[in-house]
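Q: Hi! First time doing this. I have a protein sequence and I read that you can turn it into a structure. Is that right? Here it is:
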Amino acid sequence: MALSGLEIYKSLPKENCKECGLPTCLAFAMKVAAGQAPLENCPRLEPGAAAALSEASAPPQQLVKVGVGDQAFEIGRETVLYRHEDKFHHPAAIGVCVDDTAEIAAIKEKSRAVAAIAFDRMGKVSKIDLIAVRHLSGDVERFALAAKAAADAAGRPVALMASDPNALRAAGGALAAQRPLLWAMNAQADIDGYIATAKELGLPLCIQGRDFEEISALSEKARAAGLKELILAPECATETDGLAFLTQSRRAAISRKYRPLGYPVAMTAINGNPVQATVAACWYILKYAGIVVTNVSDPAYLLAMAASRQDIYTDPQVPVQVKPGVHPVGDPGPDAPVLVTTNFALSYYSVESEITAARIPAHIIAVDTEGTSVLTAWAAEKLTPASVAQTLSASNLDRQVNHKKMIIPGLVAVLSGGIKEESGWDVMVGPREASGIVPYLKKQWSG
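A: Yes, that's right. Below is the predicted 3D structure, encoded as structure tokens:
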């Protein structure tokens, strides 16, 4: 049974050293009890006390790492069912599958192309995290060769998906230094063989099973054998079945502390219809999947998955922001317009997207308003003449343009006089909405 915060606190050093990142040992104990902080964050905990507390205070979901170096990713150790309660900590990994029946050259080409995909959205770059190699040839050596080719070409972590422990042992052994994920596609057939392979190679194991009962039994057996880094993968006839497993397993792990299901979940969104595969992948990402593997490799579809992931894994308690300061858009020359907005990402990118689409080079002054929108920032006195002038002064923009004119949002026209007085620049009152920027520039801006 899980320990309370006070029970955990009794075993802590009670020094309030703050090395765990929290102000007191009691605050840390409460976080551990809630599953929101790992016990190992306390560097001064005695080994005996750590051993006694570790099982009872273990987070409701195990953390699993796949890959090595900068390309590695971590999934799991989530602590809440609903994002507004805290936040989701480890973004889902998106993987694209290749089959070992394809020519080696084709495997390399596809893996390289997938690894090159990157999306810059709202100031954050998203990429494809994983190449999943499926053992469909029945040839163990062929599988190992295909896996090595995919890993070398992509430079990304690899998931080895096979129904044969011998195939996983061969491919996993060849790539052990790169820490691939062993995905047992038919775990029930030889769970002992899969467990032995994972223990021998020291690699994380994904257990694929038919239903809750089977997966729970398999994970409990792997856990009893000493495997800690486990991932669960249900065999789902429909997307609805997949969503049911994701939500029910998450609830069992978080709310009921049911250890056999206290692991991240991997899902496959493989469909001959790329639209349907994309829809399924987005559903799974939004409803707790730790890994989603798809056969879709077209960037247009992968963008939808990356956008879904970015949306759900932002912190709902912290506004999405861009770096304050002056941002050039395009290649602005000395006559380029200067526009003012806040560093709230939605406000900034609304302005940027308009002038980018119109191919009008410009400078955008993003005032630090702690991530609040134009009208909200003005009402809270975060967007003021002084803050605009301070941002402008720190940028040395007056050395880059041959004019001293800026355009402010029409919603805060009342600031125009104060900004001119504080900055010495002429102030033009622009449109109220970003959609009016381009027509306004074409009619009103003369440089």
